[in-house]
Amino acid sequence: MGEEGTEGTIHLLCLAASSGVPLFCRSSRGGAPARQQLPFSVIGSLNGVHMFGQNLEVQLSSSRTEDTTVVWKSFHDSITLIVLSSEEGTSELRLERLLQMVFGAMVLLVGLEELTNIRNVERLKKELRASYRLIDSFLGDSELIGDLTQCVDCVVPPEGSLLQEALSGFAEAAGTAFISLVVSGRVVAATESWWRLGMPEAVLLPWLVGSLPPQAARDYPVYLPHGSPTVPHRLLTLTLLPDLELCLLCGPQPPLSQLDAQLLERWWQPLLEPLRGCLPLGTRALPAGFPLHTDILGLLLLHLELKRCLFTVEPSRDKEPSPEHRRRLLRSFYTLVTATHFPPAQLVKNPPTIRESWVRSLSWKDPLDKGKVTHTNILAW
Amino acid sequence: MFQVGRASIPKPAAHSLEDLDSVQRVLLHSDLEPEWLDSVQKNGELFYLELSEDEEESLLPETPTVNHVRFSENEIIIEEDDYREGKKYEPKLKRFTKILKSKKLLPKRYNKKNSNASGPVSILKHQSNQKMGVIVQQRHKDVNIYVNPKKLTVTKAKEQLKLLEVLVGIIHQTKWSWRRTGKQGGGERLVVHGLLPGGSAMKSGQVLIGDVLVAVNDVEVTSENIERVLSCIPGPMQVKLTFENAYAMKKETTQPRQKKAQLNTSDLVKLLWGEEVEGIQQNILNTPHIVMYLTLQLDSETSKEEQEILYHYPVSEASQKLQSVRGIFLTLCDMLENVTGTQVTSSSLLLNRKQIHIAYWKETDKLLLIGLPAEEVPLPQLRNMIEDVAQTLKFMYGSLDSAFCQVENVPRLDHFFSLFFQRALQPTKLHSSASPSTQQYDASSAVLLDNLPGVRWLTLPQEIKLELDTALSDLEAADFAELSEDYYDMRRLYTILGSSLFYKGYLICSHLPKDDLIDIAVYCRHYCLLPLAAKQRIGQLVIWREVFPRHHLQPSADSNTEVFQEPEGRYFLLIVGLRHYMLCVLLEAGGCASRAIGNPGPDCIYVDQVKTTLHQLEGVDSRINERLASSPTPCLSCADWFLAGSHEKLDNLTTSPILSRLHGASRVATSPTCRRTLFSDYSLKTRKPSPSRSGGPDSGLEGEGVGLSPHTTESQGSHGSEETGALLKVTKKKSALPNPFHLGNLKKDLSEKELDIYNTVKLTSGPENTLFHYVALETVQGIFITPTHEEVAQLSGSIHPQLIKNFHQCCLSIRAVFQQTVAKEKKKALNGKDHSGSTNSVSSLNPVKEHGVLFECSPENWTDQRKAPPVMAYWVVGRLFLHPKLQELYVCFHDSVTEIAIEMAFKLFFGLTL
């Protein structure tokens, strides 16, 4: 994967819309953060064309060269995000969703107030540094797909009901309704209220937890981009087992100190075994022994109403191609199909119902039948 | 008259022989002086189109009308001529009237009288186009009169049409006897039976008795609504009355149906002639669209307003906005290229909440931009379109620069792009035809098919094919009569490089290399010549222009030309159309032939020879029709048959399923082994993609064709000659692609209900033929095949059109994916295979080989409320094959088809040329 050459670079630019001052620039190359940056003049003209259009009531939304796609998006007339991607198989859909996530992440950590009324650009720049880590995780190769599908990455725990019970009991004891159990960025179980969280934050919060360096416990102020973009909440995380964290979203109460070891022990000690069982689910998403056809190399299951998805490339691990490769294939397949065949509803008048779509790609080997054939399937009802 | 055709060429003394020659030639032909001679433009170009209504077919008691349309530098003149009476205008008079008309000196009355006297009437509406300076004689005429309702004392109108009489001064009597044919829906026509003395109408002097008032201020009126319309006139004002003249009216009333169809097509013709068609154009102007040709090199000091715009079209409010943001495109083009190292291809922007795609085409330091709304034209399609445009312009003018940077080209480009946008934004209008289902099919398929690098191809049975080939070869050889060098003992003017023959818009025979063929086809498609030939009989079409085929102008492309001459051999395209035939001939001057000097116009001899060739083929025409009056061979199913309960209702449609099943039966009767031998024998590597039918299966198929004909006539009798296309198609499928998909289905049939196949009487049960539609593209030969209009028209149903529309949309998106693959492959081939092979597939799905989409469809107007509408699921699958040749196949079939059958179908198709 490292041998991608000069291609596969993503540049993300964030500018203050009114002044055109760059707030930050992030780049990644071949899935890893890179230091290489665009020259200032390029940033200036990228922003310039967008502003020029806006003055004439023409919103420039995207532009493509043979291998690069540029997408502009301005938020609340105060922040302009520009992404320039030369990744293979990239599409506007992916980049637009990326920008939405990035802006969501900025709101999550800085708050909408700061972003819409920029008083002190330098201070905002400093504050935004806190979100770099999260933003970089969107740019790079992630094991999750929530940024693209806008659905919460979930796993299917072996003993879900037990965990669910413990969760609701603990929620009562802790005094907050918003609790979830997260294993490496994927939700294992969550309370009803947690599931009812609005769109960007439902994906962003587990993602944030997954992107932070491991800590035994955290008390993290967050704004909810959908729910309360201006009033911060507290995100408390408690590590039950390595990679397995308990997340609580609450107001001023309770203080972190109140959630002491005793409380945790009382609720979670009895469930140690099921919790241990959850650990390998991080990448596999499905419990061991789940019957799955041996030819299935990857799986993406979306529940569009509940906004949850299940994404795994772990089945039959040992086979070609590598999990990273499969993940990318599945991601680009999703992008391709969603962009071409399941377009946003409001754009299409009277669309034919498309139920299924598949691509047979004959890749990387003998162009004739002897090579491996990836056959992927998305079913959406 | 004698010097016409070469009139504008400054002739050096050395050419005196040639002069003599042309005199002689004209003398020879003086009895049939070509009508198009006057239309040749200064630069030698000719676009001459004349429609004819066939005499035999014409139900009219009147003399058939022939309309001549001439393109000259800045005007179009349509003249009327009456062939039957053998009457000809005296040339001088003709010129004189032409001049008069062009200067707008001739009063409209003159035209009117003229047409009354000689009988025929132009079918064209009167329009005067400022920009082009078009003057056309009208079938409709507009008369502006002054009305003053205030003068009226309000009276209770006891008589009908009181206002018409009092206000306008037109007397119309509602007598039944005035009606010429039974009922006209919604009111009687307003025939002018008399004029009120002193009334405005009489004062105008332009309203004649017998005229029909059709519109007031562009509001259509009949006897029913005229009073209401007139009563809406608030005060004294000028009112525009539109009249249809008496003759045309008569024609229309005697055969309203035919008239209607013709009116539709004449829209197309009008567009071709560069006229504005009201309504259509107006609609289009409201959608933002633009084409711009910009220069990237600006000297910033002297930059004036809009200096960088070398050409733009259209001038409308909606496109004005796009024009004003051209800075964006210029900047992006420059900057993104610097940053990414690749050229910018497209942008999207939002204008009034409407998404608009802009495609870029950069050449040296100029930039061609085309912008169209995303709703109408998806991005991949737009990219193909701009490529097409660039290619066509280069074919026509040599380079984009020479096309755009010459002032005299501007009106031509305006015409070019008005056609272009017409096709892009309102494909239905151009593809109007008699039956709505075919029209819809045309419109939906145009989206896809216009983008394919190929020509719609049909094959013929061997003997007809042979005849066509011989005829074309004879023409190309050019070694007889006046074409031979011996005849005049001098070098011939042009060498015929090749020719291709179209029938009703389908390619039936081609002796041109692929590149030339595609260039010509794109040109024809652009000028809508193919649908034109399909829909109406062309009286005479002569097109002549210098062209710049890329195939020949590339260095070292053609060894012949290199040996004999300097690189600047020149090429000319001659298209002659006659009835449904259209023969395109590519001529070369220089090389073996003498060199072209100046801007030679069309040469009579060549035009005549080509025309003769077409005349020769007249007989073939009817034989084709006859031969092809059999069933569609890759038998298609109508989607509606798959809906529960629809079988009983669709009695009239059962012929087709019967056909397909019958067909299926006999197909299976020819054993699979036999078919295999056909494949191995058959080779598409011949120069012409002519499918040679080998003996074995042929007989079997033939028998089947005969057996089926009674059924076919039942359903198709009325379609008459239009059937030809379908049938041509049929044979192609028979020989070249023996129903790959169908075979698959049959396999299924065979396995599941073997008995049923032989027992064709028992039709109501058993598995169905589940193939709905297909498109196969063969890029090597530049051809593609699909079911014909007629085949599709047979399958009329409520869902089927919907399905076909979906199919084409899907194909389009699938093809977009394939195109990426192909582009990648090309890049790979350029870069060398060592490193790129591994990186390509790492993060993307490329190269995509197959893409399938499953649809659900239910009838749109489902009346039964108790039951839920039945839902039908079907697949659209496209497959791309890169090796050994680039091929694409798109199939649409019912969900119930097994995967093995489909696999089989693809294997068979791609196996053909292996």
Strand order of the largest sheet of chain B: 3-2-1-21-22-23-19-20
**What percentage of residues of chain A falls in helices of 4 or more residues?**
25-40%
Task: Tell me, rounded to a whole number, the average pLDDT of chain B.
Answer: 60
Assign an overall shape of chain A. globular
Uncertain segments of chain A are: 1-5, 345-357, 360-381
* Count of discrete structural domains of chain A: 3
H/E element sequence of chain A: EEEHEEEHHHHHEHEEHHEEEHHHEEHEE
CATH C-level name of the largest domain in chain A: Alpha Beta
How many DSSP H or I helices of chain B? 35
The end-to-end span of chain B amounts to 57 Å
Share of helix of chain B, binned? 40-55%
Q: Can you list the strand order of the major beta sheet of chain A?
A: 3-2-1-6-5-4
Counting DSSP E segments of at least 2 residues, the number of strands of chain A comes to 16
CATH secondary-structure class of one domain in chain B: Alpha Beta
Number of helices of chain A: 13
Main location (chain A): cytoplasm
Keywords (chain A): Cytoplasm, Cytoskeleton
Pfam families (chain A): Fuz_longin_1, Fuz_longin_2, Fuz_longin_3
Family (chain A): Belongs to the fuzzy family.
Characterization of this structure:
- Chain A has 381 residues and is of the alpha+beta class.
- Chain A folds into three domains: 9-141, 2-Layer Sandwich (Beta-Lactamase), CATH 3.30.450; 152-283, Beta-Lactamase; 292-380, no CATH class.
- Chain A has 13 helices and 16 strands.
- Chain A has helices at 40-55, 92-110, 112-116, 121-128, 132-139, 146-149, 160-174, 192-195, 199-211, 261-268, 272-278, 281-284, 323-340; strands at 9-16, 22-29, 32-34, 58-65, 69-75, 79-85, 152-154, 178-183, 186-190, 217-224, 228-241, 244-250, 299-303, 308-312, 353-362, 373-379.
- In chain A, strands 3-2-1-6-5-4 form a six-stranded antiparallel beta sheet, sandwiched between helices. In chain A, strands 9-8-12-11-10 form a five-stranded antiparallel beta sheet.
- In chain A, helix 7 (160-174) packs antiparallel against helix 10 (261-268).
- Mean pLDDT of chain A is 79; it is low at 1-5, 345-357 and 360-381.
- Chain B has 914 residues and is α+β, with helices and mostly antiparallel strands.
- Among the domains of chain B are: 53-62 and 163-170 and 188-245, PDZ domain (Pdz3 Domain, Roll); 288-450, Beta-Lactamase; 453-554 and 567-629, Beta-Lactamase (2-Layer Sandwich), CATH 3.30.450; 739-829 and 847-912, no CATH class.
- An eight-stranded antiparallel beta sheet of chain B has the order 3-2-1-21-22-23-19-20, with helices on both faces. Chain B has a six-stranded mixed beta sheet with strand order 18-25-24-28-27-26, with helices on both faces.
- Chain B is globular and about 80 Å long.
- The model of chain B is unreliable at 1-32, 53-138, 153-161, 175-185, 246-265, 556-567, 644-768 and 833-843 (pLDDT under 50).
- At the A-B interface, helix 1, strand 4, helix 13 and strand 15 of A face helix 10, helix 11, strand 15, helix 33 and helix 34 of B.
- Chain A: This is Fuzzy planar cell polarity protein.
